[in-house]
Write a structure and sequence with these properties.
about 280 residues, D-amino Acid Aminotransferase, Chain A, domain 1, OB fold (Dihydrolipoamide Acetyltransferase, E2P), 2 domains, four-stranded mixed sheet, 7 helices, 15 strands
């Protein structure tokens, strides 16, 4: 808006202060006002998005922490779609036209922290093969005639991932053993099911020591006496510390068991852009 940038997550959280380098977006948009849909990413040494590295930029509130983290883990904004420009809504406009308007409205340089990733107009199979070869997580396939449906899942816009991932609601944790005796051994997680949260298993791997410390600090104020998850086996809940089911994380896993549990689940990180009510079985 006239060079002023506001970054908002999908659940309405203002992220602007946490990513000062992305104020550059206001200088590369050739319009008075624009609403751009995209993703904030941190890139590894090979130029690939690194979700773990991005986690180090999340939930920072002190200006000094943001400044220090911006130096060690700079982020980029990948612009995927254009929702409105100069007061005109593009939500009902087909994707091909929105894409053309996006490329016309955003003209970043090659070294800019703002990028419009090239679209890949090929078969799904070919796109998946290219994604796998580049070491990416997967692809997003969009119907070229599809409109933009904010906040809704649609067959016109599909994520296809190489590995199985699932968003989960954190309902509690169990103390660790050995080196992790004074910390978290595993998280107890669930997914919405009807009017409650169905227990889907424990997550005990994938954490760094720093992440474990952060999770302990984050979950501490949310402590409660009773389990917020339905169907927790006695063995899993015997020494559990329960928390209010207010936070969402993402895990990678091998498969769903016949009993509806996550097998070999590994922590990927927080999803502050999601609320518990938005979590669905992937």
């Amino acid at each position: 808006d006239g060079g002023t940038v506001r970054l908002t997550s999908r659940n309405g959280k203002d992220l602007t202060a946490g990513y000062p380098e992305l104020r550059e977006l206001g200088t590369v948009v050739s319009a008075t006002t624009a609403a751009v849909d995209g993703e904030i990413v941190a890139l590894d040494s090979h130029g690939r998005p690194d979700f773990g590295l991005l986690q180090t930029r999340m939930n920072l509130t002190k200006a000094s922490d943001v400044k220090r983290s911006a130096r060690s883990a700079p982020v980029h904004f990948m612009a995927f779609d254009l929702l409105a420009v100069d007061g005109d809504s593009l939500l009902k406009v087909p994707y091909d036209e929105r894409r053309a308007r996006l490329e016309s409205a955003l003209k970043p340089g090659t070294s800019s922290s703002i990028q419009v990733p090239p679209s890949l107009d090929r078969s799904v199979e070919a796109a998946i093969a290219v994604s796998r070869e580049l070491g990416m997580e997967g692809i997003v396939a969009k119907r070229r005639s599809g409109t933009y449906q904010p906040g809704a899942r649609s067959r016109s816009w599909i994520k296809i991932k190489h590995h199985r991932m699932q968003e989960v609601v954190i309902g509690g944790w169990r103390p660790g053993n050995g080196r992790r005796a004074s910390s978290i051994g595993s998280l107890l997680v669930g997914v919405p099911d009807g009017s409650g949260l169905r227990y889907v298993g424990r997550v005990g791997t994938g954490f760094t020591d720093r992440q474990l410390d952060d999770i302990m600090r984050t979950l501490g104020p949310l402590a409660r006496d009773s389990p917020p998850l339905d169907g927790v086996p006695g063995a899993d809940g015997a020494d559990a510390r329960w928390v209010e089911p207010a936070l969402v994380g993402e895990v990678e896993f091998a498969e769903w068991t016949s009993g509806g549990r996550l097998r070999q689940a590994s922590w990927r990180g927080w999803r502050p852009d999601k609320s518990p009510t938005e979590v669905r079985i992937e």
